[in-house]
Each structure stands twice: as C-alpha cells, then as structure tokens.
Design brief:
Layout lengths: L21 E7 L2 E7 L5 H13 L3 H14 L4 H16 L3 H14 L6 H14 L9 H16 L4 H30 L3 H14 L6 H14 L3 H14 L4 H12 L35
Antiparallel strand pairs: 1-2
Helix pairs in contact: 1-2, 2-3, 3-4, 3-5, 4-5, 5-6, 5-7, 6-7, 7-8, 7-9, 8-9, 9-10, 9-11, 10-11
Length: 293
C-alpha cells in the first residue's frame, strides 16, 4: 500500500493463518451486518491483521483490530503503535472526530513520543477536512487555523509544518471568502458602513488571499454609496497600483469614470495580477507523513 510504504514491515511476524477470527452475522433490515468477535491471542497477530486491512483500505476493520490491541495489551509498545494507526485509519474513513479523539489519547499517554508531532498534525487535518462552504458557519475553519498554527509553532522545521503552511493559505482564503460574503450582503442591503468593516478586514488580515482585489473594489463601491469620493478614489488607486491588470481594477476605474472621478492610472491589460490562493487538494501527500514506528 503506497500510504504505508514507509512502515517497517518487520512487525508482520505472524502469518495471518494463525489468526482466529469469528464472524457473527446479524441483520439490519435486509442488509447483513458482520461483527468481529475477538479471543485472546498474540499481540503480533492482532497488529498484523490490522496492518493487512490497512493495505486493503478496509479502514474500519483495521481500526477494530488496533483497538483490540490496545484493549488486550494497554500501555505496551504495540498499543502505542496501534493508537497511531487508529488516528490514520479513522482519518481515511472520514471519521474525523474519532481520529482526533485517538490523537488526543495518544498525546495524553505519550507527550514526549517521536510520533506526538504527527498526532498534533492529524488533529489539524481533521479540522481542515471539516471546512464547509462560505455560506455556512466557519467554526471548523477557525479551529483549523488555530491547530495548523499550533503545529507550525511547535514543529517549525518539519514536514508537518510545511504542509500546515500550505493548508493555512487555504484556510485564510476561506475566512476571507466568508468576510466577502457578509460584506456583499450588507452592500445589497444598502448598509455600506457595515460592508466597509468586512472589506477592510479582508485587506488588513487576509491581504495575501485571492479576495483582496475584489475587497478593494467593493470599498470603492461602498464609499461611493456614502458620497466619500476621495476615499473611493484612494482605494481605486491602491487597487490599480497593486493589481493593474486585474478586472476588479478595470471595474473600479469604470465606476469612477462614470462619476467623473477616474484615477490617473488607466487599467493595464498586461499588468501583473495579484496572488491567487492554491486549489484545495484534500489529503494532499498526507500518506507520506505517516510516521515511522
């Protein structure tokens, strides 16, 4: 399995032929449901069974085996390894809360472990994966921002920090998008003062995101609604200086021109555009960051 190629396979010490597994079949409506019932057995066999299911991307079944290792052999080296695998298996299964719970469990038991940075990193990833569109509440986005920054602060020179910085750019773009959504709403409701506060937040707090050119344009709009022509012209000038070829500057120039207050600098169709946020790629190269055990 590519996702776990970095693991030391020397832990597969026992053939799966030696694993005893009872399957009880039950029914839930017309769909059969299987339950895994474990008997006491060598810890290596349980762990290897879980690893085999990870190879097969049977995330939930793998997690069952790792939990059984922890239940039968708590505080052992095998238990420590199994908790790390629970974090990963739950994440891959889309069970982000369960993955974070396993990460918290690991951190509480092994705060000084070499795998503890991974546990913190995965908590941040679980929050990141639960980010929703800008039309909805952004609690997960704010949580992801806090946790990603925590990883960067704790482990600045690691691959975990590198990926966290990449994701943090997308988090900022998301939060800026939320501010823009609210600001546009206020503009449509003819509440320019409230809108201005939102657009200024984008410019001051999230100025490296892809939303900055539009935020500057919307400030031109809002200030024109208030009759603050000088302020609108100043915002347009800032927009033109930083994003001379952006379509938002052309829109601002045209808006002011129709009112007789066009900026001195015309839009440059060949000008450099401002920074663009990267596309969100879920679980990007995450598997390569699963720690060696």
């Amino acid at each position: 399995m590519r996702a776990l190629s970095c693991f030391d396979r020397s832990f597969r010490l026992v053939s799966m032929a030696s694993v005893s597994l009872f399957i009880l079949a039950g029914c839930s409506g017309n769909k059969p449901k299987t339950h895994l019932v474990y008997e006491e057995r060598p810890v290596e066999a349980l762990y290897n069974a879980g690893m085999t299911r990870l190879d097969n991307k049977e995330w939930s079944d793998a997690n069952d085996y790792f939990q059984e290792v922890e239940r039968q052999h708590p505080y052992s080296e095998w238990s420590r390894r199994s908790i790390v695998m629970e974090i990963y298996a739950n994440y891959q299964a889309g069970k982000y809360e369960e993955s974070s719970a396993a990460a918290d469990h690991f951190i509480s038991l092994y705060p000084g472990s070499a795998q503890t940075p991974y546990a913190f990193y995965m908590k941040a990833n679980n929050a990141f994966e639960q980010i929703v569109d800008v039309g909805r509440d952004q609690d997960s986005t704010v949580q992801a921002r806090t946790m990603l920054n925590d990883v960067i602060k704790r482990y600045p020179n690691t691959e975990y920090a590198k990926d966290s910085r990449f994701k943090l750019d997308m988090v900022y773009d998301q939060l800026a998008g939320k501010e823009m959504t609210i600001g546009r709403y206020y503009l449509n409701e003819k509440q320019p003062l409230s809108a201005i506060g939102r657009f200024k937040t984008v410019i001051s707090t999230y100025q490296t995101t892809s939303h900055t050119p539009e935020a500057l344009y919307r400030l031109v709009e809002a200030n024109m609604m208030l009759g603050l022509v000088d302020e609108a012209t100043r915002n347009a000038a800032v927009l033109g200086y930083n994003y001379p070829g952006d379509h938002w500057y052309k829109a601002a120039y045209d808006l002011l021109k129709t009112r007789g207050h066009a900026p001195d600098v015309k839009p440059d169709p060949n000008g450099a555009k401002g920074p663009q946020a990267p596309d969100k790629k879920k679980k990007n190269w995450l598997s390569s960051l699963v720690p060696h055990l």
